[in-house]
Design brief:
Order of helices and strands: HHHHHH
Oligomer: single chain
Structural class: mainly alpha
Helix content: over 70%
Number of strands: 0
Shape: rod-shaped
């Protein structure tokens, strides 16, 4: 470390005596002692900054892991549920497809698509509010029956 810049500073007498005492104890000049102390201080701050950054990175990784665990826990069993739903839908389709001609089947698909869109629009993308709606099972059944009666479900 080449020291070629001069820096002048003023300290009170007590601090000057302490610097001289410590410099003598280390067998260096006061100027060298001050340069070493400043260098250690500056490098110490850099190390502390790196440690803070490292702790921040660790915390971010912990939060990501927690989020991943929460999502995994929340979606546990959904694959099975979706698969069963698909199986049931296909089974129902297989049962009714021979009972109705193409125009009636297409009409049923169109009505189903429209109802799904209406339900999604009613949610306005807010799944949480749909889960917390306070309808009793009988209210839901009555509502579904009323909606069903409003639709043209005459397939014969």
């Amino acid at each position: 470390m080449g020291r070629n810049e001069q820096l002048t500073t003023y300290v009170d007498a007590e601090v000057a005596r302490e610097i001289e005492r410590r410099a003598e104890a280390e067998d260096v000049s006061a100027s060298t002692y001050i340069a070493q102390v400043l260098d250690q201080h500056i490098h110490g701050e850099a190390v502390e900054e790196q440690a803070r950054e490292h702790r921040a990175e660790q915390r971010i990784q912990e939060l990501v892991a927690e989020a991943r665990d929460e999502v995994s826990e929340a979606t546990e069993g959904l694959e099975d549920l979706v698969a069963k739903s698909g199986v049931y839908s296909i089974a129902v389709w297989e049962l009714v497809k021979d009972e109705y001609d193409d125009p009636h089947r297409q009409h049923a698909l169109d009505v189903g698509t429209e109802r799904l869109r209406e339900d999604m629009d009613a949610l306005d993308g807010d799944i949480e509010s749909a889960r917390t709606q306070s309808t009793t099972p009988s209210e839901a059944t009555d509502s579904a029956a009323a909606e069903s009666n409003d639709r043209d479900w005459d397939f014969e």
